[in-house]
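Weekly sync, protein design subgroup
Attendees: M.S., D.O., the rotation student, P.L. (late)

Item 1: inverse folding check
M.S. brought a backbone from last month's batch and wanted to see whether the design step gives back something sensible before we order anything. D.O. pointed out we never logged the input encoding, so this time it goes straight into the notes. Structure tokens as presented (253 positions):
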């Protein structure tokens, strides 16, 4: 098993990619704090995985609330004795609006979940890693939308901010052996569309040809879990500061 003895925290564990990451990590021996707002879904996941190698601790919270995400990291340390891996996976879409049509409400929502939440989690995780004195590992779920126009201005900007925090953290803590990598996800069959609300039709019309360029149907989120397992395990021990596309080749053009 690749993650025996490791303690991991995965945000956005109640659906899509996060749920698959928890499933794979626990089967590979990790103890996982499963974080999201929908507590009943987290409890169902813990029940489903109760006979696997690792344990699941469901923790209900909103990633955009500092006290919730910091509390989850404290719970990881209190329950399992340490934190080894943080996966910042929780995220929401914008409405594909081009700049002239961006609303303050959408900007605040997307940046609070996609940027503030991961920043608060990374800050606390780095504090714990430094105190533990044994390195650490952060995986940020970013998007091809940080590199080209697969959504609106605000979603792309939020994921580009996440990429920048990833590289900075890898650089700043290289000597402390805190690794930090990003996955640039392509199109996956999850519930993310429900976070979009009513799309801006002008933006959607312009984004659609870019989505069609991928030529790959929306993929199984287990592909993201497999990439996360590699980045979370010691197999990737010499890899940090990377933006890894997991997109079936979409970024290759
Ligand atoms: N699907 C794609 O094609 C795609 C492509 C590129 C990048 N991504 C990125 O991949 C990540 C996972 O997305 P997904 O496709 O798996 O989406 P999803 O199926 O909608 O799952 C999103 C998860 O995030 C959680 N979440 C949302 N807002 C939250 C908040 N305020 N606090 C805590 N948890 C919150 C949701 O749980 P609750 O609602 O229970 O809180 C859910 O567990 C996101 O960062 C997304 O931007 C997805």
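Designed sequence read out in the meeting:
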């Amino acid at each position: 098993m690749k993650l025996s003895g490791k303690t991991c925290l995965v945000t956005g564990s109640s659906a899509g990619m996060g749920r698959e990451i928890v499933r794979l990590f626990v089967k590979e021996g990790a103890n996982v704090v499963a974080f999201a707002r929908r507590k009943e879904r987290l409890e169902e996941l813990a029940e489903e995985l109760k006979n696997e190698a690792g344990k699941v601790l469901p923790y209900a919270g909103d990633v955009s609330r500092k006290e919730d995400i910091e509390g989850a990291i404290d719970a990881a340390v209190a329950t399992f004795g340490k934190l080894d891996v943080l996966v910042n996976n929780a995220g929401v879409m914008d409405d594909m609006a081009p700049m002239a049509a961006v609303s303050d409400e959408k900007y605040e929502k997307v940046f609070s979940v996609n940027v503030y939440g991961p920043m608060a989690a990374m800050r606390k995780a780095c504090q714990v890693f430094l105190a533990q004195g044994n390195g650490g590992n952060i995986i940020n779920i970013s998007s091809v939308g940080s590199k080209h126009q697969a959504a609106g201005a605000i979603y792309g900007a939020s994921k580009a901010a996440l990429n920048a925090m990833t590289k900075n953290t890898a650089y700043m803590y290289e000597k402390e052996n805190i690794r930090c990598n990003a996955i640039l996800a392509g199109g996956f069959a999850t519930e993310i569309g429900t976070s979009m609300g009513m799309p801006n039709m002008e933006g959607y019309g312009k984004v659609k040809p870019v989505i069609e360029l991928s030529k790959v149907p929306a993929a199984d989120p287990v592909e993201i879990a497999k990439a996360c397992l590699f980045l979370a395990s010691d197999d990737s021990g010499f890899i940090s500061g990377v933006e890894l596309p997991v997109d079936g080749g979409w970024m290759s053009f």
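Discussion: The chain has one domain: 7-252. The two ends are 36 Å apart (CA to CA).
Action: P.L. to compare against the previous round before Friday.
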